[in-house]
From TrEMBL:
InterPro entries: DNA_mismatch_endonuc_vsr (IPR004603), Restrct_endonuc-II-like (IPR011335)
GO BP annotations, alphabetical order: mismatch repair
Gene Ontology terms, MF aspect: endonuclease activity; hydrolase activity
Family: Belongs to the Vsr family.
Organism: Actinoplanes italicus
UniProt-recorded name of the protein: T/G mismatch-specific endonuclease
Annotated keywords: DNA damage, DNA repair, Endonuclease, Hydrolase, Nuclease
Length: 258
């Protein structure tokens, strides 16, 4: 069998392709599946198909093995009001699922089946590229969050992730110690207006100023709501060194237990 990126059809004359050429790993989350499709398509804004009445839907490429012919076929699928339309794209013949998905998306573009959405009239993004970049910014499971969680877990501390400390409130904390009433927030420097690293955007300045100031006001209000309910709020900046940040959280936990 050839390596990833090389056509493998000539090896399939007498045997079926390996599962790695078409079958995805079982048990993956919907988020992981979406990320796989985004990578293969070249970004989330390259997965849209046009529907009637100006509507759009996000599509996926599916791979299907035909054992009798020993060939892998690629299909474009999407959802439309409970239906699941499918368009045949063609045969693909690479040794890996990732390459075959990319080939499927290439065929979909070649056939003119895809249509990236234009920015909405009231959108803050000036182009699909900008909108795609901003969508890629995570609101959970960021690198700083994962590093802090790993360090605290290694110290024997257990917590809830991405949880709402106060019942009936939509405010969410990155780490929560429910019994001790401690909520930890890992704040991004840009989105939360870090006094050290925040740099105002040069484009659409008024919108972003209002947006960031609103985030800061919401953070302050959240801290007040938590304090009124008997909670301790700990805020960690994404630029903070992980060990001192973990020390702060651990100290608060030990004191609460003591």
């Amino acid at each position: 069998m050839t390596g990833t990126g090389e056509r493998s059809e000539r090896f399939w004359a007498t045997t079926c392709p390996a599962d790695a050429a078409w079958r995805g790993r079982q048990g993956r989350s919907r988020r992981a599946l979406a990320a796989e499709q985004d990578r293969a398509a070249g970004g989330p804004d390259r997965r849209w198909v046009k529907l009637d009445n100006g509507r759009q839907a996000r599509a996926s490429v599916a791979l299907k093995l035909l054992p009798r012919t020993r060939r892998i076929r690629a299909y474009l699928r999407w959802s439309d009001n409970g239906r699941s339309p499918t368009r045949y794209l063609g045969e693909v013949g690479f040794a890996s699922r990732a390459e075959n998905l990319r080939e499927g998306w290439r065929l979909a573009h070649q056939k003119g089946l895809l249509s990236p959405p234009a920015p909405k009239p009231d959108s803050w993004a000036k182009s699909p590229a900008v909108r795609s970049v901003m969508r890629a910014n995570k609101n959970r499971d960021t690198g700083p969050e994962r590093r802090l969680r790993a360090m605290l877990h290694a110290r024997g501390l257990r917590y809830r992730v991405n949880s709402r400390p106060i019942s009936g409130s939509r405010r969410t904390a990155d780490l929560v110690f429910p019994r001790l009433k401690i909520a930890v927030f890992v704040d991004g420097c840009y989105w939360h207006g870090c006094p050290e690293h925040y740099r105002p955007s040069q484009a659409n300045q008024q919108f972003w100023h209002t947006k960031i100031e609103g985030n800061k006001a919401r953070d302050a209000e959240t801290d007040k709501l938590l304090a009124a309910a008997g909670w301790t709020a700990i805020r960690v900046w994404e630029h903070d060194v992980p060990k001192p940040a973990a020390d702060r959280v651990e100290t608060a936990v030990r004191e609460a237990r003591g």
